[in-house]
Amino acid sequence: MGGAQESAGPEGLDDEGRPLPTPLATRSVQRHPCPPGAVAAMWEDDAVAAEVPVALVFNGLSHAVMMATPADLHAFALGFALSEGIIDQPGDCHGIEVHGLQAPAGVPAGTATACEVRVDITARCFARLKDKRRSLAGRTGCGVCGIDSLQALDLVPERVTERAWAGALPADAILRAVAAMPARQSLNAAAGAVHAAGWATPGGELTDLLEDVGRHNALDKLIGQLAAQGRLGEDGFVVMSSRASYELVRKCARLDIPLLAAVSAPTSLAIDLAQQAGITLWGLCRPPRAVRYGGADG
């Protein structure tokens, strides 16, 4: 999967050396109550999280447009391809290129307002992707989280490999990882509104953290980073700054990740899928408390 790594350009530039949208934008704000000594609330510039369209294109076929934070896009594309079952392993990806799309008329020249990520995958995986798209063609859209139809819902997760440590992991290890997250959430510290997905060892050491305005995007970025580094098979678990929704559980199941912990509560469907997949699921992980909802013995 060396192609995806080699294609990554310098920070903030696409693979042709052109500027990408920045992860943080600036907007005018008025703070209330007024700062001490101020006669009236003053307007001032403040950092806000950028949210831009990111088009994911596989072998020239536009597959999805996600609203995302324009950072770590190589990792995002690889993680999305793996977690959505478009490719089966990192080696099925031959290369990834990120391109900034320039602003339309009325926006300052040279300003990139969207991104296109072009992913080169094996012929076998591309044929499967085209077959899946054809099978959905013509069905009536139901508007469920961007999928084409109710038939497209994938609610039968793979069963993860049983690991004794995941079912026996104490809450202290999970809370240790959660407590380490804020110090590494630089985008959220600057702007708020940004989710994080982290990777922790069974001992609770937080080793990786990726951010995005979308919680599932953040998880895809984390998966992509681990995949690019050849670390997907190592023992560890995912921690999320968000609620635990069913799609996060589904992505973890597909990547054989045995434990998912979230700062907020899970949904009922997330709990059900975790039990089906044999994933140990923790929610409301806010030191010193945490709640276990389901796991390998659930």
Short synopsis of the structure:
This protein has 298 residues and is of the alpha/beta class.
Brief descriptors of the model:
single chain; Cytidine Deaminase, domain 2; 9 helices; disordered N terminus
Walkthrough of the structure:
The chain is of the alpha/beta class and 298 residues long. The chain folds into 2 domains: 131 residues, no CATH class; 131 residues, 3-Layer(aba) Sandwich (Cytidine Deaminase, domain 2). Helix content is 28%, strand content 28%. The chain contains 9 helices and 12 strands. The strands form 3 sheets. A 6-stranded mixed beta sheet has the order 8-7-9-10-11-12, sandwiched between helices. Strands 4-3-6-5 form a 4-stranded mixed beta sheet. Helix 2 packs across helix 7. The longest helix has 14 residues. The radius of gyration is 20 Å and the shape is globular.
Shape verdict: globular
Radius of gyration: 20 Å
Mean pLDDT over all positions: 88
Task: State the helix count.
Answer: 9
How much β-strand is present in the residues? 25-35%
Share of residues in helices: 25-40%
Distance between the termini: 36 Å
Largest sheet: 6 strands, mixed
Spans where pLDDT lies below 50 across 5 or more residues: 1-9, 138-146
Q: Can you tell me the number of structural domains?
A: 2
Structural class: alpha/beta
Number of separate strands: 12
Q: Strand sequence of the main sheet, in spatial order?
A: 8-7-9-10-11-12
Please trace the helix and strand order, writing H or E for each element: HEEEEHEEHHHHEEHEHEHEE
